[in-house]
Design goal:
Elements: E1 5-11, H1 15-24, H2 26-29, E2 43-46, E3 53-57, E4 63-73, E5 77-82, E6 92-100, E7 106-113, H3 122-146
Antiparallel strand pairs: 1-7, 2-3, 3-4, 4-5, 5-6, 6-7
Helix pairs in contact: 1-3
């Protein structure tokens, strides 16, 4: 068994906003470099239901699957199969829990497992995903705490 990637952090916003920012406002903060197409105007979609697709849509209408929702328990928990850049049969599994921490803060816990599905590629993919999470979580935190619904490139406070 390959050790999971585990991340714990606090976001200075309430749990409803944190969950919504992660799941419904993903296009506003997700780094375009962490996508299939790299298109600067792509849309990231997480369909809000078990069995829902996670995918990117380019302005030209091309869709690239990234994963599939396995649990949608708004606003406490989201889990999904993750196969961005590989076949669904090689999907890993991500669980994200959002827990209130007092009034206006949320503890977020992410556990990314299932590396064994990648066979001999497991160790390098795990390490690549460690870096990927680093590149994704800071924009998420910044956007959730900012409260802005504008893309990062259009914010006047940077």
């Amino acid at each position: 068994m390959i050790d999971p990637l585990e991340m714990d952090f606090t976001v200075r916003c309430n749990v409803d906003h944190a969950f919504s920012t992660f799941t419904r406002r993903t296009s506003l903060w997700w780094p375009k470099s962490h996508s299939f197409s790299g298109d600067p105007s792509l849309e990231v979609v997480i369909e809000p239901r078990v069995g829902g697709r996670i995918f990117e849509r380019t302005p030209g209408g091309e869709e690239h699957d990234w994963g599939e929702v396995t649990a949608w328990e708004e606003p406490q928990r989201l889990s999904y199969l993750w196969h961005l850049g590989t076949d669904r049969s090689r999907a890993t599994h991500v669980v994200i829990e959002f827990e209130p921490d007092g009034g206006e803060a949320t503890n977020v816990r992410i556990v990314h497992t299932g590396w064994e599905a990648l066979g001999d590629d497991a160790a390098p993919w795990r390490e690549r995903n460690r870096g990927g999470w680093t590149g994704v979580l800071e924009p998420f935190r910044s956007h959730a705490e900012d409260g802005s619904d504008r893309p990062e490139s259009q914010r006047s406070d940077y």
